[in-house]
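Sharing a chain and its predicted structure for anyone who wants a worked example. Both blocks are below, sequence first, tokens second.
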Amino acid sequence: MSDLTDTDVHETVISEQGLGDTAHPSSPVPFVLGGPLRWSTRGFVAVVALLGFAMLPVRGLFRAPGSSMEEGFMLVFPRLVQQGRVPNVDFLHLYGPGSLDALAAWYWIFGYTLEAERAFGLLQNLAIIFALYALTRPWGRIAAVGAGVIASLLTMTPIGLAALAWHGAVALALWATVFAIRARNTGSTLTWGISGLLAGLALSFRPDVVIAVVAMLLVAGWTYRRTALWWVVGGGFLGLLPMWIHLVIAGPGPVIEGVVVDPVVHLRPGRELPTPPSFGQVDGALQAVAEGLPPYWPLPALSANHQLFFWFFAVMIIAIGVPAGAWWVRRRHGANPTIDTLLIAGVLGLGILPQAFQRPDSTHLAWVAMVSWPLLAALVTHLVVHVFRDRVGDRLGRGSLVTGAVAVLALMLVVSPFYTYRYYLLHTRVAVGDLPLPFLVERDDRKFWFGNPEVANALNEMIPDLEALMEPGDSLIVGPADLSRTVYSDVSIYFLFDELDPDTYFIEMDPGLADTEGSGLAEDIEEADFVVLTNFWSGWLEPNTSVKRQSQEHNQAIADNFCLVEQYESNLLMLFERCEGGGGISGADVEGIYPLVPVPEELAG
């Protein structure tokens, strides 16, 4: 492809697209198509309007209940990195080192607090939203704001402001896409290098986006001159610097085991859910708990399980349909920078579709939809303009630019209102003071929000008891009450007791990893000073191998080496201290220390 100037791009858009204010001769060429960043009143209004919609629930999200394991380890793991601990060597980490390194630096600057972590998560979310605004800007500001609204509903709701690596990786991959398309239209080799740099950083956050990122870059660079390829490769190599350093420090073996073998081979049987989702029930344990006391929703809607079922198929069809539709338009009307933007970005959305297949709960479905569905709005707008333009001419007006966004928002109202609109409404009501706050557990400057008052009460009662016994530098292990089923771990407790050493490789606990015989968890327990076991997740039932009890050696290590200090809220939480000869627990009790909710025998196997 030959080099294009800004004027060339502008004339191409005007002559071939005829789309709203982008096609107006006085309008600037969008940044993604090669135009410069410039000030305009209408652009400022569009950005402020989108930012206002995205930020409306943020005050509530800063004080929303967190995921005790996932958000917990995004607090604890970067702290361990600051202390010189090595992921995949000193503690289990299933993703790349990039997000931990970024958060470790962030905490050095802004402090090790929940608010700092959620501020980082907010920036990741906004980066996703405004990347999609930039990618859909060729269809006009109105259409781009609509796409950004869709992205906001899908980005802010599944995990709130938790600074998870997936959102960081998607944000970086989307901006790599923006710069790849811009480089394609301007011919700037430096811009190709920036795209490669961002793509490499995305892979350092989540190596499993490699198919999506590589496919996007291949389509963007197809038929382009070879020098651009070297800039992309060079930028990508530099962006992957956190991974290269990690490989040297941790060694290739532990990294491959932790990042590839554990999540793909060992973990998958205990975390996968039926594909498609079950029509008659909610399969995911966390979602089943949430639907036990669901937030208020005023409109008629399908049941939660039916929404997940239909949403799954909609996610799959749209992820495939966006690049396929863009390709069809390209073949029918010829190649041009605008439709190529949709094709290239659509390939990225298609590349992350496997996330929806491995565990089709609302979080993973949103993680895929957050890319493809805003792009669908642009595709629908494009098709409407081209189908009806010759028939009605200018009478279609600016109303045509909202057709795509309205169509997608209407689809979301049918197939996923509980997982998008409902949580946006919930957190917005909290933000404006229309609903009470959730339940706070606080210790000094450490705090964490929980959605269950009994859980919060148990933790608040336990904190002074552990403080009275511990000394700085003592070691602590946190796990589920039945350590033969490590379905979840309340890592947030490590965050609350920062001065205690998380003395186990399995800070994050997963079925098929920590609970297997010979995993090393029993040896870690034998060396610990204190153990906190929770029955928060004893009712965890999913149609996978997580319901099966594994090795009892970890429970036996508790029985042989620890005495019960106190139990809280009817065994909802238990504090153990190392003691000579153990607590004298009988063999019959070892299979789940004081289990609150036993696993049905037909499932336990």
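Comments welcome. Confidence is low (pLDDT under 50) at residues 1-26, 590-605.
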